[in-house]
Specification:
globular; seven-stranded antiparallel sheet; mainly beta
Length: 143
């Protein structure tokens, strides 16, 4: 078994904080990452999307995939912040609702200096809900 992170350990890798921290568990095994997040139903993005029929917005599913992918970037240098640089070939296949657990599987596809391209797939109950290529750039952190 590789590196496994849960709870507060995740905050050592991700700079996101509530309500945008969308990760319950992360695991890195070799060149792959597996991560999960359970939609509780009280997330702010569900309030208006859609009243009486909550569906997780596609961009939030992409954010969950991106947060998972950060674990594939080994040793983010001090003064750098992983940020989205692009989305390609993204397809949504299944709606995600409160109570669903999104499981992300991802791997690094290419790297050039501070630019990473990652292939990710998100599933719920074994069915693909989203897949695509995500680009992450290590930007200068102005903090």
């Amino acid at each position: 078994m590789g590196l496994v992170l849960e709870g507060e350990e995740i905050k050592k890798v991700l700079r996101h904080r509530e309500p945008m921290l969308l990760m319950d568990r992360m695991e890195k095994e070799g060149e792959f990452v597996s991560a999960q997040y359970t939609i509780r139903g009280d997330e702010p993005f569900l309030k208006g999307h859609f009243p009486g029929n909550p569906i997780v917005p596609g961009v939030i599913i992409c954010e969950i995939m991106a947060q998972s992918c950060v674990l594939l970037i080994d040793n983010v240098p001090e003064g750098k912040l992983p940020v989205y640089a692009g989305l390609d070939k993204v397809r949504f296949k299944k709606m995600v609702r409160p109570g669903d657990t999104i499981v992300v599987k991802a791997r690094l596809q290419a790297k050039k200096e501070d630019y990473y391209v990652l292939e990710a797939k998100a599933t719920v109950d074994g069915q693909i809900c989203c897949k695509g290529l995500l680009s992450i750039f290590l930007a200068n952190d102005n903090q």
